[in-house]
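Interim report, section 4.2 (structural modelling).
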Amino acid sequence: MPHSVDQKAEALPSAEVEMAEAATDESANQGAAEDVDMTDATETQTSEATKSEAKELGAFEKGQERNGMASDTGGIKVEDLFDMDSDDEEFPSSAMPVKKEASDSPDLLPSSPSDAGPVQHSGSDPELLRTFYQRLFPWRYFFQWLNHSPQPTLDFEHRELSFMLSNDAVMRYQSYRTADLLRKDVLRLMPTRIEIGPVYSTNPRERKLLQNAGSFRPVSKELCFDIDLTDYDDIRTCCDKANICIKCWQFMTMAIKVINAALRDDFGFKHIMWVYSGRRGIHAWISDKSARTLDDSKRKVIAGYLEVIVGGAQSGKRVNLRRPLHPHLTRSIDLLKSHFQDDVLEAQDPWRSPERADKLLQMLPDTELREALKRKWDASPERSSELKWKDIDAVAKTVTSKNFDPKALLDAKQDIVLEYTYPRLDINVSKKLNHLLKSPFVIHPGTGRVCVPVDLRTFEDFDPLSVPTIQQLIHEIDAWKEPEVKSEKGVHDWEKTSLKPYIEYFRTHVNALMRDEKDVKVKRERDGEDNGDLW
Amino acid sequence: MNRIDNKRRNVVDHRKKQYADPAYKETQYPHRLNFYATPPTADITLEQFEQWAIDRLRVLAEIEACSFRNKSPVEAAAHMRPLLEKYLPLDSNSSSSTQLSAQRQKDHYSHFILRLAFSSTKELRQRFARVETMLFRLRFNADDTRERQAFVESLNLDWEPVPDEEKRKFATELIATVISSYGKKAYQSIDEEQFYRVDWTRVPDLVEQRKVFLRAGKAYVPAKELQSLVVTEFTARLEKSLELTARALPRLDEDDRLTPILDHLSKNFVAPDAGYSGGNSAIDGAEITARNIDNLSQHFPMCMTVLHRTLRRDSKLKHFGRLQYTLFLKGIGLSLDESLTFWRQSFNKMTDDTFNKEYRYNFRHSYGDVGGDSNRRGGGYTPYSCQKILTEHAPGPGEAHGCPYRHMNMENLAVQLQASGVTDPAVLRGVGEDKEKQKFHLACNRVFEHLHAKELKQAKDERIMTASQLETIVHPNEYFKRSYLLKNMGKAQPGGGGDVKMEG
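Predicted structure of the assembly:
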């Protein structure tokens, strides 16, 4: 951390370092804490300065002001620090003169670090990370995605971003006015992880200056979903815990299919983006205005509507649905049927072992049927799940008892199909407006993979294991050769890498979102509402 | 002050004028139900003011208690009927009651008095809106069909009927939702069913339970589900006007007769299930330390026993499990240091580093050792009550928290119970029945009584514990405390000193 440490900073009773999931031992991270405290002090001063010095300061100057203050507190001119930061010796061409368009288009020269061979497999190598943030992260589209407009609005300025630093300290309540200011600060802090929170009613940085704590409250955020393969551990046989392979990834494909259909057809949301979380899960971000402004109770409703698999590990049969099935479930079964055959019965073979077959038996109705099946399967161990599944109907025909109800069996079979295919949502992520979720395009620290959006047109072919890693990307920039015919526009660094299709997809998504948002605004202006204070 | 002068002078300014209008004096109550849109304007006596408010408060408190006890709507209605008749009767138009107008006036006025009393803080507002909604729903369901229809029409809610053409287009879907929600008998034919198309956000509970067909953000609500629409509308409007009341409250034009009454009312509206105060939880003489937890766990209620077993089996607990368990341990008097030791030792499959990085902070946060000002000042979180465990955060995949009587199926529950020494088939059957009827706290108390049968008898015989100390347990920490004291009766009170401790 190229920061001077402010020694006077006594552990202020400040909640600036708020640990989200992870926590840190204070003594071990003294440096971080102080660093952060300083930021806090800076904030306060800045805001006061901003207050007293009227508002004619341009946005950019304000940012400068902020940085200037930081330097005063630390006793070092912050400009120097920044120069050092951006004039990285190894990447002179990527120096960041603060010009408007430059946010993600550094110079063309493919200057390369000489030693950038295949480095150790880690997503948090500071040098690689710096290059990534400097040259590859799509700051501009990221900004537009959260801002819903090319010009800075409060949607971005009041948005909470939270950084996890390399020492695992978490800085909450960061906010920025423009993409450039954000980029600068990210390069200064070099977070290993960036999380996105809600838009607040006031600027998150100024939350402590408010007289009335109630006036700082979350007002909007994308509706989010989180699906994690660890939740499939009791039904997948190929991998467990954090490991994944293309076989169990099919559960994610099914999840996208089902949830996407419901969000689109049932709730009428249009701007849905699915993002690979870098290791074993996916996130969905729904940016429609109607979704962003949902309050907690409405989010809970959507979560409840989509949640089918209930109860913990010990609840027994976990899908118990009313009949006839709700249209959403009928559609889901239609979408999932073929996956159940191919990706579950064949690929996972979930009931091969006798213990697991017992689990299947427990979910079936009628004692006579269960006993008959048990006898049959005990006689031929190692019978595949596919055959066992077929056995159910075959054996059912031989059941003679009067109480046997074929309808109940059919229902139970449907429930089983759902239990083994229906998406398992981490529902708490979706329920709360102020839940933080990892941003797209950051690097997963464990795998080094970029959290890329999943193209909905080709999501069935998405292979998480072929998602580019940070090492690979940097390598690709270096390996890139300038084409014979130079295009006039120049080439962005990301266009030289395999990140290109993902960023292009992101751009398309963002543009469509902004177009819709603009239409709404035009309408509003026509209604005679003053729009001026939005920027 | 000129405020008083104004009153004395009885100036008819524009605000007073409307009160002078006789149309307001005689508020008409054509319907039994009321959306409480217009505030009352006539004069009532101070005694009425207080008495009416107290009567309504009684009713609301009891309604809330019903929801805490997880009563079904039908049970709650049966339970509430005598109370409502006594304190807040409302007869239908068709009844020949001569009290119609007076009853409705009381209902109307008492609602507005309580609005004043409960608009001051956000918590009170939310709670008031919640219980008022419950009361409204109760009455709505009990209303005469025709009168209900008339009332709904008088509300002028804009609902768009689904045209026949569209109805036929989505016939399969619509029929499925109707039959699954009301059964085959209720359904006649698609042409007879009337549907309304509304924004899905207006019928959240129907959407959450998948009782309506959704398409492009619109819910197709069967006419039978009118209730949900009306109730949601009621809540929304009430919340909005409570907000307005709160803002107007500081400017209440009032002499000092009403404020004390209002204060008194809002203070008395404490939940029957208030947080378990840390003060009375610690037990003298018990060794509450990390290494003694295994030994103490024999006194834990099932919800905590299950967590403890899961923790011992997996050396890990998921987030809500950790939260529920650590707060319980905090409640029985485990200090922060001991707690950290306990968790560190229990999570024995991870390195110190991982533990410190990912978990230590959370445990400290729940003890109020770190975090924001309010967290630290408040000493962290309070241990969860049964109510909270039953209703919030139902366990998901791989999670072991929650109430076993509610969230486990009977087979798994029986296994857990047998592991705790509950083998008597009669008790197990009783638990099963309780579970079936959703009387989870009864099941838990049944198990407690079974496990402590001998001690309870002794305690009763020797009058060591008073009746109030033996009433139904509604908090896991209470379960522990009582269990510990009962099992240690002999040791804890060699000279009858136990009694004193019991008061603690």
